[in-house]
Description:
With 329 residues, the protein is an alpha+beta fold. The protein is built from twelve helices and four strands. It has helices at residues 3-16, 18-53, 65-75, 88-93, 105-117, 129-140, 168-175, 188-230, 232-240, 245-280, 285-288, 297-326, and strands spanning 58-62, 121-127, 157-162, 181-186. The protein is elongated.
Amino acid sequence: MRAQFVMSEIGVGLRRNLTMTFAVIISVALSLALFGGSLLMRDQVSAMKGYWYDKVNVTVYLCTKNDALDAAGAAAPGAAAGAPTASAGTAASSGRPCAKGAVTPEQKQGIESELKKLDLVQTVMYESSDEAYKHYKERFGHTALASVVTPDQMPDSFRVKLKNPEKYEVITSAFAGRDGVQSVADQSTELDNLFALLGTLNWAALGIMLVMLIVALLLIVNTVRVSAFSRRRETGIMRLVGASGFYIQVPFIMEAAVAGLIGAVFACAMLGTGQYFVIDHGIALRDKLQLINFIGWDAVLTKLPLVLVIGLLMPSLAAFVALRKYLKV
């Protein structure tokens, strides 16, 4: 097969249907940009999960004297009206945490010992009420509530780092409601809503990408058929003189492949531009949102070859399927 003939036919076909070729390029570019963006979003969510879940702790808050007074008062609501005050045993029977009083040194030691014995626990760090108050002032010292908070209102706690943060239910079930334990808090539950939102946005991007991909395929099929119809006399003559079906189809398939490849190049340019101007420079989210572990250029560059291959093969296959029936003479 003469390469010069094929290239000339490709140029003729692209120029003859310039408007539709341009529409194909734009559609392919947008759909593949959304496809690449969805892959990068998935990598970003995975990176954020790995980064944040690695820092997530399960916190076991210990009872204070204030908690014991609150539990006793709640267990005896008639005290304000002159009714007899409920005993600690009565408060304990109500099932309220800290009903038996503040945590004792023995309870504290037992809790720490049992935490360290668990296989899923990586480290256990004790934080006193004074340390908790100091950290609270550092984070929320500018708020009005910070002026009325006192150190004795801050509970002692154990900060537990797990080998697998998703197993926090084990700590909760083992220590929640135990004597001396006020509550068990897991920070990963606060992140689940964020990751669920990001996952929803990712699926929405994939849905839009699928719609754009269908539009691009329809445009490719229509463009190829219009091109084949405009050259039906030429293809008929070529068939009559013995040209094979593959020889006739190659120029049309190559036209679609070239248009798709150009669209894929534009998609790669959009992905690279987004990484450069939105993440690294320009808007510079990496500098403004330092709490987020943004993906780097290595993640972007690994997606570009896939985008180019899809941009080349997708139109080619669509054109091949569309031409099998149409070019029969």
